[in-house]
Design a protein that fits this description.
alpha/beta, 8-stranded mixed sheet
Length: 219
């Protein structure tokens, strides 16, 4: 089904910002992007999804293995005991984690990445070998990219779920600029512009589209 995603501001990352912008998606591909009225006129009958704030290409997470295997993401049922934030270091070492609990943590960690606009994750050789992480990433549809080609120095000991924590601008944080014919990987953030996005970070994400599928929405 042809779907149009629209927001008050579209930041393609490889072109100028577009007010009242829209992206047309057919299956897993971007078929057009531009001013909403123009995109809609070229796609009559398309389903329209409206998002607040700013629409961008999906973001890239450089530290997925650390976040998924050196952090424990508590189950909501454990919130009273463990809280809601990822546990690592001494807090992680104090837990007795069987494989079933690790497997659940990995799934929840991926969901939290999606909740931060992530659509691509980096791994050595662009592949994961961890027996829990590899199949979970494959099921998620996230793009796996090489760890080579970072825009500059990356965070050290404690990476962050927020890709903007690396300190780079939007072009340095997205997986790839928006292109017609490219993968339909998008993220929407409840902020008015790029300056607010980089300042407030990806926790402002309200929707994440991976390969044309809406995999996260906050409301």
């Amino acid at each position: 089904m042809l779907t149009i995603h629209t927001a008050p501001l579209l930041l393609p990352a490889g072109a100028l910002p577009i007010e009242n912008g829209a992206v047309a998606v057919n299956g897993d591909r971007v078929t057009a992007f531009g001013v909403y009225d123009d995109v809609v006129a070229a796609a009559p009958g398309a389903r329209v999804r409206r998002w607040p704030g700013t629409l961008t290409p999906g973001l890239r997470q450089w530290h997925p293995l650390w976040l998924l295997r050196r952090c424990y993401h508590p189950d909501p049922r454990e919130a009273g005991e463990l809280g809601e934030l990822p546990l690592w270091g001494e807090e992680l070492a104090a837990l007795d984690l069987l494989e079933s609990r690790w497997s659940g943590s990995v799934r929840r960690g991926i969901q939290r990445m999606l909740a931060h606009g992530t659509t691509a994750v980096a791994a050595p050789g662009a592949r994961f070998t961890d027996p829990l992480v590899a199949p979970a990433i494959a099921r998620s549809g996230l793009t796996v990219v090489s760890v080579e080609g970072a825009p500059g120095p990356l965070l050290g000991e404690r990476p962050d779920l927020d890709p903007f924590a690396e300190g780079y601008d939007l072009p340095g944080t997205v997986h790839a600029p928006l292109t017609v014919g490219g993968r339909a990987d998008l993220a929407a953030f409840d902020v008015p512009d790029e300056a607010a996005l980089t300042a407030k970070g990806a926790a402002t994400c309200v929707a994440t589209v991976v390969n044309g599928r809406l995999l996260y929405r906050s409301r």
